Amino acid sequence: MAHANTVLINALRRTANKLSSGTSYQWGHMGSCNCGNLAQELTLLSKAEIHEFAMAGRGDWREQVEEFCPASGLPMDLLIAEMLKNGLTTTDLQHLEKLSDRKILAGIPSEIRSKMKYNSREDVILYLSTWANLLEDELLEAAPSLESLLKWEEPIPIPEDILL
């Protein structure tokens, strides 16, 4: 599962919001599909640029991710590497394209989850939002509370030369 961080959480939320607002969505287009829309947020590339990079590569997102090689120099591999720098894993990208991560799906009520389609704008929005919430919860659980940061178990000694 992705490494929880604010950059990724915000990108997931922006992607969901843009899809809710009617941004281009076409599951069969490498730049405006599930991964393509998130890639736009994480890389600041346009859907046309992402699609062009993908067409120079090897197949759909799943195939491109399976054959990902950060040393290849191929534009799509560089794009995927940039997405990975923001906390994603290649498995996350494969799951995103099919809306198939069990941990994310567990956060969606079963009556909705059972009817979800990987190429439905509304289902992608729900998946992205649920994922962002899950990562945010993980981030908050991992962060020490302010109270614990301010509470000292024993005093910190001050060196005598500082007091002089």
Q: Which short descriptors sum up this protein?
A:
164 residues; mainly alpha; 11 helices; 60% helix; single chain; globular
Describe the structure.
The structure is a single chain. The protein is built from 11 helices and no strands. With 164 residues, it is mostly helical. The protein has one domain. Helix 1 crosses helix 2 (34-43) and helix 1 runs antiparallel to helix 9. It is globular and about 70 Å long. The mean pLDDT is 89.
Number of strands: 0
Major sheet size, sense and barrel closure: none
**Low-pLDDT ranges:** none
Helical coverage, percent range: 55-70%
Structural class based on helices, strands and sheet pairing:
mainly alpha
Beta-strand content estimate: under 5%
Overall tally of domains: 1
Number of helices: 11
Mean pLDDT across residues = 89
Radius of gyration over C-alpha positions, nearest whole angstrom: 20 Å
Task: List the secondary-structure elements in sequence, H or E.
Answer: HHHHHHHHHHH
Terminus-to-terminus distance = 53 Å
Approximate shape: globular
What's the structural blueprint in terms of helices and strands?
Blueprint (H helix, E strand, L loop, with lengths): L5 H15 L13 H10 L3 H9 L5 H6 L8 H11 L4 H9 L3 H4 L4 H4 L7 H22 L3 H5 L9 H4 L1
Helix pairs in contact: 1-2, 1-9
Outline:
This protein has 164 residues and is mainly α. 60% of the residues lie in helices and 0% in strands.
